[in-house]
Amino acid sequence: GPRNMELVPSAPLSSGPLQSPLLDGVDYAATEYMLGIDEAGRGPVLGPLVYGCAFCPVSQEPRLRKMGFMDSKVLTEEKRDALWAAMQDRGTNGFLGWDIAVISAEEISKQMLSTNRRSLNALSFDAAIGLIRAVLERGVHVTQVFVDTVGDAAVYQERLERLFPQCAITVAPKADSKYPIVSAASICAKVPRDELTRAWQFVEAGGSLDRAYGSGYPADEETKAWLARSCDPVFGLPRFARFSWSTTQQLLKERAVAVAWPDDEEGGPSQSKMGAYFHKPGDKRATTARHRLFKRSKLHLVKELR
């Protein structure tokens, strides 16, 4: 059952798409397919963001409704698990396929806090594009795409239409409650994410950290308590936490040891003008201490230009 499926290792890095097998004897290029995309885990301060994609022949949409696909948020956990288990059945996979992409908390933190910062919406958009491309590259003749919106639906739809002109694109809010194929994608995202967060294997503290972290949402008292007791004053928080969330940033500010970065100190190398690193021969300023970048990169002063 889905509880025992090892979808991805509990590692800090993001995974590539995880895919259902394509069956022999099925001509995926000769039939028109619809494809839906949804996500799970956008708001939590803990765990990965998981993007799910489901696809089936356009003619089989009534079969999806009959199976009970609807907004995963209104389904019981048992019903979601049952639908996910049905999607693993090779007989079911003859008409319904799926792909999954996992964006780890560490990757979210890295992208959102890097010098060239990227928003969560940008990461989500890239994940959706990657899933659509993955299905198309497998030779599936996708003609319709339905996506649960992130941000402005019209802008999102226009961008996808430019990238995939061969597909009729529909981007809408609450798409998982309107289109059964997006509801199926929602199951592909939510059930695996729940399993990942429930069975996460920590590499910090010798793996001895407890898993009583509640829902993972910033307002959850159990989640806040777990963050507080898991915060090391020197090493900070486990990579299971999203460092780009204000919840974690405030906690580290209050409980972790302050770090002084040499380049941030007033008068440090970062405050110097570029010209300070270039001197004429015999210039006494040439004895100025050089920035560690030059030493680390083994760069030397040019003594003569020809």
**Helical residue percent?**
25-40%
Number of strands: 6
Q: What topology, given as strand order, has the largest sheet?
A: 1-4-3-2-5-6
**The biggest beta sheet, please?**
6 strands, mixed
What integer value in Å does the Rg equal? 25 Å
Poorly predicted runs: 1-16
Shape: globular
Distance between the termini: 73 Å
What does this structure look like?
With 306 residues, the chain is an alpha/beta fold. Helix content is 33%, strand content 12%. It has 9 helices and 6 strands. The chain has helices spanning 61-67, 77-88, 105-113, 120-137, 153-163, 180-198, 221-230, 246-255, 292-296; strands spanning 18-19, 33-40, 49-57, 97-103, 142-148, 168-172. A 6-stranded mixed beta sheet has the order 1-4-3-2-5-6. Helix 2 (77-88) packs across helix 6 (180-198). The termini are far apart. Residues 1-16 have low confidence and may be disordered.
Task: Jot down its keywords.
single chain; 306 residues; alpha/beta; 6 strands; 12% strand; globular
SSE blueprint:
Elements: E1 18-19, E2 33-40, E3 49-57, H1 61-67, H2 77-88, E4 97-103, H3 105-113, H4 120-137, E5 142-148, H5 153-163, E6 168-172, H6 180-198, H7 221-230, H8 246-255, H9 292-296
Parallel strand pairs: 2-5, 5-6
Antiparallel strand pairs: 1-4, 2-3, 3-4
Helix pairs in contact: 2-6
Short summary of the structure?
This protein has helices spanning 61-67, 77-88, 105-113, 120-137, 153-163, 180-198, 221-230, 246-255, 292-296; strands at 18-19, 33-40, 49-57, 97-103, 142-148, 168-172. With 306 residues, it is an alpha/beta fold.
